[in-house]
Write a structure and sequence with these properties.
- This protein has 266 residues and is α/β, with parallel strands linked by helices.
- The protein folds into two domains: 3-74, Alpha-Beta Plaits (2-Layer Sandwich), CATH 3.30.70; 80-265, 3-Layer(aba) Sandwich (Rossmann fold).
- The chain has helices spanning 15-24, 69-74, 120-132, 148-155, 171-181, 208-211, 215-221, 236-245, and strands at residues 3-11, 29-35, 38-45, 58-64, 80-83, 86-90, 104-108, 138-142, 160-165, 186-189, 199-205, 222-232, 249-256, 259-265.
- The chain has a seven-stranded mixed beta sheet with strand order 10-9-8-11-12-14-13, sandwiched between helices. A four-stranded antiparallel beta sheet has the order 2-3-1-4, with helices on one face.
- Strand 13 (249-256) and strand 14 form a beta hairpin.
- The protein is globular, with a radius of gyration of 18 Å.
- InterPro entries: Ribosomal_L11_MeTrfase_PrmA, Ribosomal_PrmA_MeTrfase, SAM-dependent_MTases_sf.
- Its EC number is 2.1.1.-.
Amino acid sequence: MDYRVYELEVPASEYDLATSELFEAGALGVEVVSEGETVTFKAYFKEGSLPERLKPYLKSVSPLEERDWNSEWKKHYAPVNVGSGIWVVPSWMKGEFKEPEGSLVIYIRPGRGFGTGTHETTKLAMRFIKKLLKEGDSFLDVGCGSGILSILAAKLGASEVVGCDIQPNLQEEIEENQRLNGIEFTFVEGSVNAVNGKFDLVVANIEKHHLEPLLPLLAEKFKGTLILSGILTSQRDQFVKTLEKLGLRVVEEAKEGEWCAFVARK
């Protein structure tokens, strides 16, 4: 049976949920083609089929011969220069990638969990973490996905690192990414309310419709600084008002493409 490639276009707010559903249905990988207020992407299948709910978003379906699968998938992942001296490199390039002197390199195996270093929201969050995390800080990553932000925090010297995510079956992928980077952190399957304690730095890189209901809980979890990413620039003003109503003040913000991120304190 040949591989199939489904190309879909979904609202940006639906992308995370759509990809989660696709992986649950048997997708082997996804590849973003373009993004803005909508995200166009390809989903690769050998077994399983497109979930019924996503069929209205389908743009095309085409075959991909089995012998081409690995090269077709991997060619869309290359080392990413995030900025601030950070590089994100695909796992299969470990040992081959020439690490720039003085750089901080994170190796990630693309899989179910969001976070390969290519998305603007991840880059924005990583730059803020590099700038604000102090050695010895405790760190919480809400919606940790692949574990990329938690790995960064551990490499920067955080004393305690916890990542949590509601997406099922991430444990094996996260453990593999920890092994690739020679670090360890605690993974909790669940949302922020499943995590005990308070943290010096809390990060949530989650789209607005998932993030806003969590804001009261996030506000209770951080002792020093809260980093929020995953907000479209068109949503910026309304989101800032929501933060202010919760007694949070924005002390810094950054933008890349159609996305923005915030640093908030009480």
